[in-house]
Design brief:
By secondary structure, the chain is mainly α. It has 7 helices and 2 strands. Helix 1 packs antiparallel against helix 2, helix 4 runs parallel beside helix 6 and helix 5 packs antiparallel against helix 6.
């Protein structure tokens, strides 16, 4: 987990929260380039949490920033688990944010069926949770 005081970590969370898609992309790409050049990493960890316990993915979802969410879930340095994606997807549903929901739904479909069975899904037609 990254340290909250780390400048890059704060920048990633702020960029995600405010919907600065290019900023999120650049911060994530910085570590990929540094790794290839054998430079020390900048501690950009998309899985780290801010002082409220939120990841950059959750902050971008809360703000309705579908483009940022797409960058985060598709970037090779982001290894969000099924639980984190599921939480973000249901946050998008509660906010009636169809664009962000679709990005997260697609990301969730890439997981194996055994991982998906552990979580209930929302039956939108009935607006209730059902076990699958």
């Amino acid at each position: 987990m990254g340290r909250l005081g780390d400048t890059h970590l704060v920048a990633l969370h702020e960029a995600a929260k405010k919907g600065f898609t290019e900023g999120v992309q650049n911060l994530l790409d910085t570590d990929l380039v540094r790794d290839k050049l054998s430079y020390p990493k900048s501690n950009v960890n998309p899985l780290s949490r801010d002082q409220d316990g939120k990841t950059a993915l959750i902050l971008a979802t809360e703000g309705g920033h579908a483009d940022c969410v797409e960058v985060l879930v598709n970037h090779p340095s982001c290894g969000f688990g099924y639980e984190e994606l599921w939480e973000a997807r249901h946050l998008a549903i509660r906010q009636y944010d169809i664009g962000t929901f679709m990005v997260l739904e697609h990301a969730l479909q890439l997981f194996q069926p055994a991982e998906r069975l552990a979580f209930p899904t929302l039956d939108v037609s009935e607006r209730s949770f059902v076990e699958v």
